[in-house]
């Protein structure tokens, strides 16, 4: 089955998080650039991804995640504060494919994913705490475009997120 390629601006891929840290030491010192703790696992074909942040705050319910990924991503990164829950998955293979087809650069989940082998076949970058086979609830509970926390690091709508094999950075401004 062939999936249409979205017509969006090119993804930001010409960066290395180590270089961004080295080149922006003052931003690290004053808190305008933060490094997420190395607790999130990588899923999907895209190891390196970056983009402007869109946020969701949910708990064991992925209806808002689906609703957001159904919209054009335009190279943005969806950051989902799932409260660190390890009891249900917030993203699975279908949502990863939806994110890919709608032009999202990546998804970062403070929670679990499922269908990891399906996700790994998608041209998308996804970071999450772990895998869990049980899907999330579908009640629609949660908040959009609010300040969230991922592994204890605050993330705001409109921030920029950079992820590669060395780590994940969150910046208040575009760096690359």
TrEMBL record:
Keyword Nucleotidyltransferase included in the entry's annotation: no
EC number: 4.1.1.112, 4.1.3.17
GO BP: any one term: regulation of RNA metabolic process
Reactions mediated catalytically: oxaloacetate + H(+) = pyruvate + CO2; 4-hydroxy-4-methyl-2-oxoglutarate = 2 pyruvate
Cofactor(s) this protein requires: Mg(2+); a divalent metal cation
Annotated Gene3D superfamilies: Ribonuclease E inhibitor RraA/RraA-like
Positions annotated to bind Mg(2+): 115
Alphabetically ordered keywords of this record: Lyase, Magnesium, Metal-binding
GO molecular function term, any single one: metal ion binding
Keyword Cytoplasm: no
Family named by the database record: Belongs to the class II aldolase/RraA-like family.
Subunit structure: Homotrimer.
Listed PANTHER family: 4-HYDROXY-4-METHYL-2-OXOGLUTARATE ALDOLASE 3-RELATED
Protein known as: 4-hydroxy-4-methyl-2-oxoglutarate aldolase
């Amino acid at each position: 089955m062939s999936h249409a390629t979205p017509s969006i601006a090119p993804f930001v891929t010409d960066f290395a998080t180590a270089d961004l840290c080295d080149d922006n030491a003052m931003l690290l010192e004053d808190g305008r650039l933060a490094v997420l703790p190395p607790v999130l696992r990588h899923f999907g074909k895209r190891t390196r991804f970056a983009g402007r942040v869109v946020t969701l705050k949910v708990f064991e319910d992925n209806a808002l995640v689906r609703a957001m990924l159904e919209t054009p991503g335009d190279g943005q990164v969806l950051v989902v504060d799932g409260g660190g829950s390890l009891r249900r998955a917030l993203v699975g293979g279908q949502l990863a494919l939806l994110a890919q087809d709608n032009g999202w650069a990546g998804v970062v989940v403070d929670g679990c994913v499922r269908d990891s082998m399906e996700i790994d076949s998608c041209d998308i970058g996804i970071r999450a705490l772990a895998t869990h086979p049980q899907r999330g609830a579908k009640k629609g509970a949660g908040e959009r475009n609010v300040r969230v926390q991922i592994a204890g690091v605050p993330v705001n709508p409109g921030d920029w997120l950079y992820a590669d094999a060395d780590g994940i950075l969150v910046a208040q401004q575009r760096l690359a």
